[in-house]
Specification:
- The structure is a single chain.
- The radius of gyration is 17 Å and the shape is globular.
- A hairpin with a 5-residue loop joins strand 1 (about 130-135) and strand 2.
- It contains 8 helices and 3 strands.
- It is mainly α and about 200 residues long.
- Helices cover about 50% and strands about 10% of the residues.
- Bound molecules: manganese (II) ion.
- The site of manganese (II) ion has 7 residues, from helix 1.
């Protein structure tokens, strides 16, 4: 099996009260694990992909054999997105971004409050299941986008530095239908150090 479920970088309850332990356990142990299992099953049907990295599967999704392309898109995307998502959160995190990424956010959006408003609008406005993203271009500029399902910016050749899962499974136990409340709380666990490291690696 080429892909395995990565361990959470913190305990499931570490992001309480913003993200509850049961949501984390189900999200990581059931949902993310299912993407890994289903991705491995798809690759078993297309052994020529066995040597591909997860990044390559996303970046070159258009050249994945058509017989497994949708399965790889959904489950490879799901594995990539969630592996990143866990790393972009941490206990005792949140606040305003400093460093180079903080400056890039201010340059693009005016200030952090304005950026949060626009990012939230993208996340709330994503109909159904999907993700909101902050992407960085090679020239250092940053922009907000959103994607449906488990698609991600890498599938379009872009570099995501921040991502927010807005599938109901990410928030329903604690927030029910109140996606905006989940987004407001999520800012308290954003690990800006990890975002800044991804920004530097653009
Ligand atoms: Mn999810």
């Amino acid at each position: 099996m080429p892909f395995t479920l990565p361990a959470l970088p913190y305990a499931p309850e570490a992001l309480e009260p913003h993200i509850d332990a049961q949501t984390m356990q189900i999200h990581h142990g059931k949902h993310h694990n299912a993407y890994v299992t289903n991705l491995n099953a798809a690759i078993e049907k297309a052994p020529e992909l066995a040597s591909w990295s997860l990044d390559q599967l996303c970046r070159e999704i258009a050249t994945v054999p058509e017989s497994v392309r949708t399965a790889v898109r959904n489950n490879g995307g799901g594995h990539w997105n969630h592996s990143l998502f866990w790393e972009l959160m941490a206990p005792n995190a949140g606040g305003a971004p400093g460093g180079a990424v903080g400056a890039a956010i201010d340059a693009a959006f005016g200030d952090f409050a304005k950026f949060r408003d626009l990012f939230k609008a993208a996340a709330v406005g994503r109909f159904g299941s999907g993700w909101a993203w902050l992407v960085a271009a090679k020239d250092g500029s940053v922009s907000i986008e959103s994607s449906p399902n488990q698609d991600n910016p890498l599938m379009e050749g872009r570099h995501a530095i921040l991502g927010l899962d807005v599938w109901e499974h990410a928030y329903y136990l604690r927030y029910q239908n109140r996606r905006p409340d989940y987004i407001d709380a999520w800012w308290n666990v954003v690990h800006w150090g990890a975002v800044d490291a991804r920004y530097a690696a653009r």
